[in-house]
Every structure is written in C-alpha cells, then in structure tokens.
Amino acid sequence: MSEIGQYIFNGLMLGMIYAMVAVGFTLFFGVLDVIKFSHGDTLMVGAFAGLTASIAMTAAGITSPLLQLLGVVLFAVGLTGALGAVIAKFLILPLHKAPPLNTLLATLMLGTVIREAVRLFYPDGSNPKPFPALLPTSSLELGSLSLRVDNLILLAGGLAAIAGVHFLITRTKLGMAIRAVAQDGETARLMGINFEAVVLFTFALGSGLAALAGVMNGLYYNEVNFNVGLLLGVIGFAAAILGGLGNMYGAIIGGFLFATLQVLGSALLPALIPDIPSAYKDVFAFAAVIIFMAWKPTGLIAEKSSERV
Amino acid sequence: MRQTNKSPRGSLALIAAAVVLTLYVWMFLHAESQAAVGVLIAAAAIAVAVSRKLGATRTMEAAVAERPGLARALSLLGALALIAAFHDSHFVLLMLCAVLLFSTACLGLTVQFGYSGVANFAGAAFFGIGSYAAAVMAAHTQIPHPLVILFSGLIAAIIGSVLITPVLRTRGHYAALVTIAFGILFKTFIEVNDVLGGPQGLQVPGMKIFGVALNDGIAIPGVEMSFYVAYALLSLAVFALVYALVSALERSWIGLSMDVVRTDETAASTFGLHIARWKVIAFTTGNFFAGIAGSLYGMVSGFVAPNNFTFADSLLMLSIVILGGLGNIAGLIPAALIVLVLPEKLQFIQEYRFLLFAALVIIILLFRPQGLLPRKTRIFFRGETSK
After folding, report:
1. Helices (H), strands (E): how many in chain A?
2. Are A84 and A206 in contact (CB under 8 A)?
3. Closest residue in A to B358 (Cα–Cα)
C-alpha cells in the first residue's frame, strides 16, 4: 500500500514540475508562435541561482530556513525572469520573422551555451551539487501511508504558482493583453497594446515559473546538476505538445499524463521484464515521446491552426 | 551580359587559388604554437576581407561555376597533396579523416535539412548507429569490410525508418522534437545496454580490404608511412563518392523537387509532387550517408563509446551544416575544418568548444542566416549565368 502511495506521490511531484515547464512552453508559443528550446536550461539556471543565494545567505550569517527559502525563491525567480526577458529581447524577437526552424535551432544552441557556461564557469559546475534542505523534514502519518511535510509543501507551492499564473492570465488586465497578443499580435498593437512589453513580460513570467520548478526540483531531489535542463526541457516540450501547444490546461494535463506514464513505466517495467536495469526508464520515457508524436502529432487537444497560404 | 567564353585566365586563377588554399591548410595543420595558429587565423581573416573588397571572391566563384570539373579535380589533388605531405604524422591524418567523415555525415544532413527541410537533430545518433553496426559486424561476422560499411549505412537507414511515421505526420518543431528525443534515447540506450559494451563502448577491429589489413600500413621501401594514410585515402574516396552523388542529386529533378517541398509544401502538392515520398527519400538517404561515415569513423578510431554520440555532437554537426551555408555542400569542408580542427590547434578553446560553436551558430543565425558560403541558385545552362 505504502509503495503504491509512494509511486502516486512521486508521480504527482514529477507531474507538477513537468506541468510548470510545459506551461512556459505553451505561453511562449501562444504569444509569439515560437518554441524556446532553452527553456529547460533556463530552469537549471533558476536552480543554480537558488543554490547561489542559499550559499551567499549562509555566508552572510542568515541561517533561518524560512528566510533562506524566501531569498532562494526570490533570487531564483527574479534572476531567471530577467534572463528570460533578455533572451526574448535579443534572440527571439530579432528572429521573429525568420523560419521557425531557425528560431528552434538558435534556442537549442542557446541552451547549449547556458549549459556549458554553467558547467565551465560555475565553481565545480560539472559535478552534481547538493541542494540545501530548507523545508521541515517531519512526516505525517495517514494510516499506513506516511507523507513527508516538505513534499506536501512543494506540491502546494507548485499548485499555487500554476493557479497564480492562471489567475494572472484569465482575470487581470495584463493577462488580457497577453491573450490579445496571443490571438492576433497585429490587432493587439492597433488596440494600443505595447506588443514588445507584453512579449517580454510573458517570457519573464514563463522563465520565472521555470526557475520555481528548478528550485522545487532541487529541493525534492536534494541535488542540482547542470544537465538537468536538457531532460526536463525535452519532457516539458513533449508535455506541452501532448496537451496541444498554446493551451494552458492542455499543458498541465500533458505534464501530469507524462509523469503518470513515466511512473507507470518505472513500476511496471521490472514486473514485465525481470532484471531490467532501472536506467531503462529514461529510454522508455523518450520512446513514449516518439510514439505519442506518431499517434497524435498535434497533441490531445489540437492546436488551433489555420494555414495562411 | 558578361562574356562566358572560357578564358585561360579563369583556369589559371583557379589553379593559383587551389595552390594557395592547399598551402594555407598545410601551414595550418603544421602549426604547432598557439601564436602561429593565431597569426594564420588573422591572415585568413585579412585575406578574405581584402579579396572581398577587390572583388576577387566573386571572380573566383564565377570561375568555379564555369569550370566545376576543374575545381573538383583541383580540390581532390589538394587533398591528396595534403595526405602526402603528412604521410608520417598519425595525428594530422586522423584529424583529416575526422574532417572528411564528419563532412560526409553532414552531406547527409544537408540532403535532409538543407534540401528537403526535414530537421534531423539526431545526426550523431545515426553516425553512432553506423559505428556500432561496424563494430558488431566486423567483430562477429565474416562479412568483407567494404560490405560492412555499406551494411552499416543500410542499418542506420532502416533504424531511421522507425522515425518516418512520426516525422512525416508532424511538421516543424514537432518533427524536431521527435529527432531530439531519438538522439537522447539512442545515447541513453547504448549507455545502459550491456550487450553493446555500456558506457565503456566497444573495440572496432581494423579494416581489411581484399585481404590487406590497413592497420599494417602500406609499405613503400625507403619511406616511413603512418598506417593512417590508407584510412585517409579511403575516407577521401568515400567523401568524394558521396559528394559526387549529392551534387548530382542536387542538379537533377530530385534536388529540384526536394527544394520545392522545402520552400512551399502547398505549391509542391499543386504541382503534383508527393511530399511524403520526397521527405522519406531525403530522410533515409541522409541517414544512410551518416551511417556510412560513422561506420568508417569507427574503424578509423578503433573504438566506439556512447560519449562520442551525444546530443551535443548532433548539434556540432548541425553547426557545420549551418556554418558552411545551409544547402551549400562545398562549404562543409571549410566549416568542418573550423569546427573540428580549430579546437585541436588552439588547445585552450578545446574545453570551451561546444560553448563557442553554439554561440557562433547563434550569431550566424542572427546576422548571416545564409552561412559563411551561401548556397547559389543552381545554373542549368551555363551560357546564361551571371547578369
């Protein structure tokens, strides 16, 4: 029983992280019709920014976990949000008129630049680094199931972040501007919406969300690695496509669906094929991406696209 | 309109250019100190800037367009001269092999990405499939080695055909995701798979052609020769063959159809072109070439390991394609020289090479998307060349 509970919990946590990444992809695709593939590496920058903030605060003598957590989250989200806006301003917007594959290629290369820069220039960046445990580690007993409080807080935090973004997009004036730009950039400009400012804000928002996901990932696994972005980027992208690009609910569903698949894979694979190394679960995840793309090329909830000839 | 009579001056200019370029590459490969390499790079930059100002580059391009046969013969001669000049240096010959074989794989990527617009972000994976296929076949079967190379290419093409359905059903970034996922899947799979040697990789036996083991070297009395000479000649032959095939393909109606499919699918289908068919042909051909190159590369280096075929290596291959000028196969060799040899020569950038070339590609995409040597419109009737 508790094992199944563990699997479910693990799946929820993974799903939350994937959903947060996928929402970013979907937001960017919504406003500019671009895929920013460096999104996964943006997440990794967020995690490393959080780590740096924590180290700096410990050095400055601030050891209260609550204050540290606040500092880590603020610094990670702030820095990464700014990074997202800078990337949009100097890379995505200038390439807006180029063929879509060029943008994809440029952001793939940007991802490599970010990844390599952290590996080479962050002190001892090529090795996995321990992430400080800033959350209470006690656990709640519910019958035979024990839930760790820190994981519950992480789940709640992720849920709150996604709900917050959703509220911002659907209920505020700024969100209305974002939706207007997503629907038709030209017309939005005619209505007096500052196109560039909205785009930059959207990229900052998505990147901030990714940074939060990166910090959550670090807190959950107690470790950050410069390589984490590539995997999360591919899976987040796949989840966004699965849910239909440009659709926020789809991205969230896609994220959780993908996590379910992965957890099922790692639980069922050893049962189906005995003595299969656990490392095959990544192979399984990527094979699932390819099969999904063959089956539903534009996702479960298809992207609304009309071809302009 | 300019006179297009073949003047002897054009031929002479071509020969002179070939000699200068060969000498330059010779000096570059020969340079040992970082300072010498720096001076050579600066000299190249100045020479390019000056000749562009004087219009020499345009004259040269016109001369090449007028005499494609001579230009090719000269390039081949230059390559042979370089192999002869470095006949006793293992390291330089190995680098030349790498440049030639990576360029061969990039010819495959050009057919896919440059001609037909099928993005393949798993070039290194197909290269790797070729290497592993060669390793397994050469170690466990009696198949003659030239056939092993051919079969490795076929295996890469067949494994690639698993991706055809998802690649065909999707477009643009969706298709890109499929190949990215495949590239990462391949590396992870090879790494966890014990049968294929896991992270340690496999040994590849040396090549034997018609009973002659290339690892024994060719013996010419009185001359000390590296056994890599034979491999370099073989790599050159494979590259030249694939190059001839791809350039013939580009000039033919096949290349024309592929270009139409890439630039406008709607127009292509109104003209009766079967879009899916052309994409499948391009994707399979490209993977075949990558597999062949990978197989020979495995035999040259004598060793295959998953770490040589990562996603970053796929991106490095795409950097070569973009840097050389997307769709311009003549640009692949200089681009491969820059991407593969420069980090070996400037040791201090070796560690940073993924970072540097990724940044370089971003800059190229932003400011010169057509690449260093842009692709020319094909000219079918030479009399009506430049206006």
Report:
1. 11, 4
2. yes
3. A109
Closest CA–CA distance from residue B275 to any residue of chain A (Å): 17
CA distance linking residue B340 with residue A232, whole number of Å: 29
**Mean pLDDT in consecutive groups of 10 residues from the start of chain A, 309 residues:** 75 91 90 86 94 90 85 94 94 85 86 91 87 80 74 90 92 90 87 91 94 92 87 87 83 89 79 68 80 78 52
| Cα A202 to Cα A36: distance, rounded to the nearest angstrom | 12
The 8-class DSSP code of residue A134 comes to -
- Is B185 in contact with A110 (Cβ distance < 8 A)? no
What distance in Å separates the CA atoms of residue B167 and residue B161, rounded to the nearest whole number? Answer: 10
Interaxial angle between packed helices B56-66 and B8-30, expressed in degrees from 0 to 180 and rounded to the nearest 10:
110
DSSP secondary structure letter of residue B20: H
- Residue B352 with chain A: CB contacts under 8 Å: 116, 120
Task: Determine contact, residues B337/B24, Cβ cutoff 8 Å.
Answer: no
Q: Is some CB atom of chain B closer than 8 A to the CB atom of A92?
A: no
Are B182 and B163 in contact by the 8 Å Cβ rule? The answer is yes
What residues of chain B have any CB closer than 8 angstroms to a CB in chain A? Answer: 117, 119, 121, 163, 165-166, 169-170, 172-174, 176-178, 180-182, 184-185, 188-189, 191-192, 266, 311-312, 315, 318-319, 322, 351-352, 354-355, 358-359, 361-362, 365-366, 369
Name the residue ranges covered by the structural domains of chain B: 7-85, 91-380
Q: Which CATH number among 3.30.70, 3.30.470, 1.10.3470, 1.20.1510 corresponds to the domain B91-380?
A: 1.10.3470
Cα separation of A220 and A131, whole Å? 9
Instruction: Name residue, tokens 């002869």.
Output: B84
Question: Which amino acid is it at A159?
Answer: L
Collect all residues of chain A within an 8 Å Cβ-Cβ radius of residue B319: 109
Least CB-CB distance to B181: which of A35, A290, A307?
A290
pLDDT higher than threshold 50 for residue B227:
yes
Question: Which of B117, B169, B266 is facing A294, going by the closest CB pair?
Answer: B169
Summarize the confidence of residues B285-311 as an average pLDDT: 91
Contact call for A293 and B178, based on CB within 8 A: yes
What is the CB neighbour count within 10 angstroms for residue B56? 15
| Residue in A with minimal Cα distance to B263 | A99
* B-chain residues near A94 (CB < 8 A): 366
The reply to whether the predicted model has a pTM over 0.90 is no
Instruction: Return the residue matching tokens 């079969």.
Output: B151
The pLDDT of residue A307: 45
Cα A231 to Cα A214, A267, B8, B69: the distances in Å are 12, 20, 58, 48
- Does pLDDT of B47 surpass 80? yes
CB atoms within 10 A of CB B187: 26
Instruction: Note whether A94 contacts B: Cβ–Cβ < 8 A.
Output: yes
State residue A302 phi and psi, 5-degree precision.
-65, 145
Q: What is the pLDDT of residues B178-199, one digit of tens each?
A: 888 899 889 888 888 878 877 8
A164 CB within 8 Å of a chain B CB: no
Contact B358 A230 (CB under 8 A): no
At residue B387 the predicted structure's pLDDT band, cuts being 50, 70 and 90, is: very low
Q: Give the closest residue to A120 by CA, choosing from A108, A131, A110, A112.
A: A112
A294 vs chain B: nearest CA distance in angstroms?
4
| The Cα angle at residue B196 between residues B191 and B199, in degrees rounded to 5 | 30
What integer best gives the mean pLDDT of chain B?
84
CA–CA dist A179, A172 (Å, integer)? 11
ipTM over 0.95: no
